[in-house]
Amino acid sequence: PVKDHVALFANYQNGFVNNQGTDYSGKTFKPEQANQLESGVKLDAFDGKLSSTISYYHIKVTDVIRPYIPVNSSTTTPTGSIQDGTQLSRGFEAEVKANPLRGFNLIAGFAYNNSKYQKASADVEGRRPGTASAPYSANFWLSYRLPQGNLNGLGLGFGGNYASSNQIVNSVSQGVFTLPAYTVLNSSVFYDKAKFRIGLTVNNLADQKYYIGYSTINPQMLRQYIASVSYRF
To answer: What's the pTM value of the predicted model, to 2 decimals?
Structure first.
């Protein structure tokens, strides 16, 4: 809509996963389907010194296999499987890149995901899947490199990542187990010339204990030092 400054986009995507077996009536399972709609806007201002992408997505998974319990049944024990389950995920993502000063760069991002089982077994229906990851996440990175002078090429970087609490177990039968939110900060110093680059990176500056998981608990690296030297031919 605004040449070289504002662009709109939209896309549609379909994917499927094959299933084996039959349902409670002996009918062969169909592939599970996922349909994604995404739309957004790309912005560019100040001769490329500020750019951003903002997008929204809507993903619906259908033909999900779930336990089948006959209507008006006197028992809650499944008598087979039925393929009418659904799962919905909706989200928002934003990214900003800025170069306000010569040698200075900023990158920042934010994401939100709302995911839940819409039609599923009573054990998880209406709940967030344990494989959906944290609903909120963010990241940023600042860097500055001296553009001129005797120390031209010397630079510093600082940034971090944030993730909100994450329910890796979320059901009626097993209860709820939540991994805590975390913020991890990182930094770097480097000397970058035309032919070579020397760098030192420190990840997880605060030496924080934190975990990620997709129905699992995975401990992450504590404070880490990385030195690197590269040469360009």
So the answer is: 0.87
